[in-house]
Design goal:
This protein has about 210 residues and is an alpha+beta fold. Helices cover about 20% and strands about 40% of the residues. It is built from two helices and twelve strands. Strands 1, 4, 5, 7, 10 and 12 form a six-stranded mixed sheet that branches. Bound molecules: calcium ion (2 copies).
Length: about 210
Amino acid sequence: MMKKLLVTLITATLFTFSTGLALAVPTTLISQGSEWQYQQFSQPDLWQDWGNVGLSSFDWANATWSTGNAGFGNGNSLPYNTYWREGTDLALQKTFTIPTGPINGDLTLNVAADNGFIVFVNGIQIAKDNAEGYTSIWEYTLAIDNSPFLAPGENLIQVLAEDHGAKTFFDMKLTGDIPPVPEPGTILLLGAGLVGLAAWRRSKNC
Ligand SMILES: [Ca+2]
Ligand SMILES: [Ca+2]
């Protein structure tokens, strides 16, 4: 009778716990319209040597940061929150928090950019593209392998955005499947289950 009860309790506990881990929920790590630190610049003009543009193309350490919400743009084709002057480029940075780890599978990066963008996370380049013509929400949908560069806690994202004339725009969104933090009740139940399991094994060995 006691053994049956323990086995039921352990089974229920492990099922609850594993179900909680498996049901990762779509989580927005960076949302559209987020607040960023940014600096506009025209030297160097990223477009002049786009193929070689990388993290070191901008002096991040000595930047003069302003704070503004995406989208960054001009004109009125896409509504924007922060003015980005034609013909200049943008450096942007912000931190985002991964509440638990690990993430299940790839992240999804959505970008709207006129004309080009490069994204770095924790110093590693994860995306780069450039196109003529205006952009749209979302012109780019990219699968980003999460494993090499992301960690639970605070992560740094940096972006170089390029314009080479007329209208400008930049905004992005980063989403992923994040396992929920187990509820305290689940942890207690798991603890009780493990204690029960230990007691049952002890009684079997006696
Ligand atoms: Ca430019
Ligand atoms: Ca443009």
